[in-house]
Write a structure and sequence with these properties.
9 helices; 9 strands; two-stranded antiparallel sheet; 31% helix
């Protein structure tokens, strides 16, 4: 990629890819994934299990591996369903059993509905938005998915309890949410603070981190893709310094960004719309 190329426009189309692997996921009630959705789940699970070398981000060699990425399928292709299928296909260990899903307040009920529809009894979800704090405290050990909004707050002890159990973070509409996060004050014991710490500070934070949205770029400005990757927590606890490459090749970025469009060819024809009506 040359210095004159614009990540927000010229390179977006070049990020589109057909991931060469698929996984079969048994969903309840006879629901089935489309071909491109199976590819997206395979992409997510492979990054979580194997990671991606971070050498392409730095000017000097590193042993660090990236266990995070950006699922950037076009609107209507089923990003919610893909995410749920990845949660089902790659369960978290008992010590970090909680998947935290950050959503816009207006989308909380939609996420809960789809978690129940596509996850069945394998997904035990709580929504902090409509659950009492005592209810969360009594059920957190039996919960494997917690849906929260950035403005939510909890008592200090519950804040630390939840934070210690999170093994995966998924940020819905990440292009907007991550931008909001950078503008929000670090409210004491709030989930905006927790998200910031998980993506920027905490070395013992979640193992896997996902940005989910229809566009692979946040509504925030960075001078290069490497700094943007830092804001996503893809390069956890790596400081801003001169060791970061100023330009990241598109082909390298495709290791952690899966861009899918409805008119792409998946091998079995055009991708088209989403199964099950997922967002």
């Amino acid at each position: 990629m040359t210095s004159g190329e614009n990540w927000r426009s010229g390179c977006v189309d070049r990020l589109v890819q057909v991931f060469p692997e698929q996984v079969e996921v048994a969903l309840p009630n006879g629901h089935e994934l489309t071909e491109y959705q199976k590819q997206a789940v395979a992409f997510m699970v492979k990054i979580e299990q194997e990671g991606v070398s971070a050498d392409w981000v730095f000017t000097t060699p590193t042993s660090q591996r990236i266990h995070a990425g950006w699922l950037a399928a076009q609107q209507g292709m089923g990003k919610t369903l893909m995410t749920i299928a990845a949660i089902l296909h790659h369960p978290l260990p008992a010590t970090k059993h909680l998947t935290l899903i950050y959503v816009n307040k207006l989308m909380a009920e939609q996420w809960m509905w789809e978690l129940q529809k596509f996850g069945g009894d394998r997904i035990r979800a709580l929504c902090l938005y409509n659950t009492t704090r005592d209810g969360v405290r009594s059920r957190i050990d039996q919960t494997n998915v917690l849906v929260v909004t950035l403005g939510s707050t909890v008592p200090p002890d519950l804040y630390q309890t939840i934070k210690g159990k999170v093994g995966r973070v998924c940020v819905d509409e990440a292009h907007d949410t991550l931008g909001q996060m950078l503008k929000l004050p670090a409210w004491k014991n709030s989930f905006s603070k927790m998200l910031y710490e998980m993506f920027h500070v905490d070395k013992d934070g979640p193992m896997y981190r996902w940005a989910i949205s229809g566009t692979p770029f946040p509504h925030i400005h960075h001078r290069n893709f490497a700094n943007q990757a830092l804001h996503l927590g893809m390069l956890r606890h790596v400081p801003y310094n001169d060791a970061l490459r100023s330009e990241i090749p598109v082909e390298a970025a495709k290791q952690i960004i899966l861009r899918q469009t409805k008119d792409m060819t998946t091998g079995g024809g055009a991708a088209g719309g989403a199964a099950g009506g997922a967002a």
